[in-house]
Amino acid sequence: MPTDFDATRALFDLPDGIIYLDGNSLGPLPRAASARVGKVMTEEWGKMVITGWNRAGWMEMPSRIGDRIGRLIGAEPGHVVLGDTLSIKVYQALASALEMVPDRRVILSDTGNFPTDLYMAEGLCRTLGDGYELRTVTPDAVEEAIDGSVAVLMLTEVDYRTGRRHDMAALTRRAHAAGVVTVWDLAHSAGAFPVDVAGASADFAVGCTYKYLNSGPGGPAFIYVAPRHAETARPALSGWLGHEEPFAFDLSYRPARGVERMRVGTPPVLQMAALDAALDVWDGVDMADLRTRSLELQDRFIAGVEAACSGLALASPRDAARRGSQVSFHHAEGYAIMQALIARGVIGDFRAPDILRFGFTPLYLHPTDVDRAVQVLAEVMTDRLWDRPEYRTRARVT
Ligand SMILES: *Cc1c(COP(=O)(O)O)cnc(C)c1O
Questions:
Q1: Which residue, of 154, 209, 220, 312, has the fewest CB within 10 Å?
Q2: What is the pLDDT of residue 398?
């Protein structure tokens, strides 16, 4: 049965009068999440207090819900676990991957990567010392740069600024041929289109849940470790809940079985409850349908903007197959233009120095929303509605 996107849209609580094109940055509230979190607070935390860890299954949530995400990213069951923020999960994956290639010292990444991934790599190299270094090249040069000096290839599949998508399977193949271990960041992939980490033979994958998976601000991140590494990967952040027997309270660390060893400390139960409810939305969704619809929405937006708005230059690949689920445009006044759009109910965001970003999320976006967004953007551009001092004052979060 084809996916019913009118039905999925009804599962979200979108503010009236808003066209939400920022689900690539923070997904909106799924209706069921408020009730679910409320129930966990009153029925579980409120009534069970500490016994909730056992009676309500709180302790199993990171792997139980991890598996629900695993289905969306093509992971083998039992190989995804939730916890912490994505920056932490990047660090963990990278540290474990580096240990697997002890005779090499280079982490290869690209200049399109999200800065936190690069910062975490820099910090890890500094801690390790001993000649470890982060090497970045432009996204187009990654394939060429994979050679026998590289220990780990760390890439974000979809560029957060332009939406350009790397070929995960091809680059992983190339990396493995050179003896390189891969860490894929799926921040803009999970819930955005079909992902197949097992099929691509990714070694490690990480991602966040508050973007396309709609877990809410601060929702936990996930980490995948390929089954072939699950019993040998050594966690750098060896926290007690990644211990084989946390409640033995041993004085020394022994890693838990499989991906459970990537847990660190006490998991965020309330955020995981919101995520669990948010994932119910995906039960009736075919990922191939999602991709088709996403590209329809994106192509409709690009065509509309290029026909009606002069001065905006497409920053995303024109070839749909090379895009994730967002479309970006360059404009020197991008920040002010975005503020003018937001003031008129069309919500996207801005990324320095000059990128207007728009996310396309078929679960709750209709083609008529796209048309309306184009129309508002055209008014803003034609009548220079962005050209006001208050639209130039930068907020803390852009
Ligand atoms: C959104 C995003 C992050 C955010 O990391 P947090 O630790 O969750 O704040 C990291 N990496 C990439 C590639 C992202 O897109």
A1: 312
A2: 83
Per-residue model confidence as pLDDT tens digits over 303-341: 999 999 999 999 999 999 999 999 999 999 999 999 999
| Residue of 22, 87, 183 to mutate, ligand 1, most atoms within 8 A of C-beta | 87
75 pLDDT tier (thresholds 50, 70, 90): very high
Q: What is the mean pLDDT of residues 250-257?
A: 97
Are 164 and 191 in contact, with CB atoms under 8 Å apart?
no
| Ligand 1 atom, smallest distance to 221 CA | 8
* Choices 3.30.70.1450, 3.40.630.30, 3.90.1150.10, 3.40.640.10: CATH for 57-283: 3.40.640.10
Beta-sheet pairing, 222-225 with 313-314: unpaired
Pick from 116, 119, 159, 275 the residue to mutate for probing ligand 1's pocket: most ligand atoms within 8 Å of its CB: 116
> How far apart are the CA of 351 and the centre of ligand 1, in A?
14
Fold of 5-29+286-392: Aspartate Aminotransferase, domain 1 (3.90.1150)
Which tokens go with 270?
């309330």
Q: Does pLDDT of 1 surpass 90? A: no
For the question of residue 185 being annotated catalytic, the response is yes
Among candidate residues 36, 161, 165, 211, the one labeled active-site is 211
Predicted TM-score (pTM) of the model is: 0.97
Backbone dihedral angles phi then psi of residue 162, each to the nearest 5 degrees: -100, -15
Identity of the amino acid at 355: I
Nearest Cα neighbor of 161 from 295, 321, 329, 338 is 329
CA nearest ligand 1 atom 13, residue: 114
Q: Which residues line ligand 1 (CB under 6 A)?
A: 85-87, 114, 116-117, 156, 160, 185, 187-188, 208, 221
Residue nearest ligand 1's atom 6 by CA: 86
Residue 9, token pair as written in the block? 């849209």
Domains 5-29+286-392 and 57-283 fall in the same CATH topology: no
61-73 pLDDT, tens digit each: 999 999 999 999 9
Position 397 pLDDT exceeds 90: no
**What are the domain boundaries of the chain?**
5-29+286-392, 57-283
